[in-house]
Amino acid sequence: MNAKKIKDMRERLSGEVEKLIKSINRGRLAAEEIKLENTEDEGDRASISHDRDLLYNIHEGGFARLRSIQEAIRIIDRGHYGECTRCRTDIDEKRLDAVPWATMCIRCQEEMEMEQTSSRMVLAGQESDEISL
Ligand SMILES: [Zn+2]
What is the CA(100)–ligand 1 centre distance, in A? Predict the structure, then answer.
């Protein structure tokens, strides 16, 4: 990947970081407002906790994305952009166009997701064992 393209990519990623921080802050304010509302009505309480869960999920997703983008910017600054952080091969340029903050090639990404899924399954299994005891 040429220097010009990497520079463009860095700008694109920095813009993305700003947008995410703004939306995370908005979500935080909205969550504060929900927390401040106090109601004795059961139905309202249920919908408030649903809203809160929803915001929390958006919030968490935003943070995960933010971390990935900041990591990608660090990699650009170290001069390794476009290189897989796991196996060191070049990440497909088409993949980088679609997911500019990708720090792993598609193969490593899939492998890692599989590992995470199986460790989650192990945890879930432990939990259900405890319940049956
Ligand atoms: Zn890789």
Answer: 15
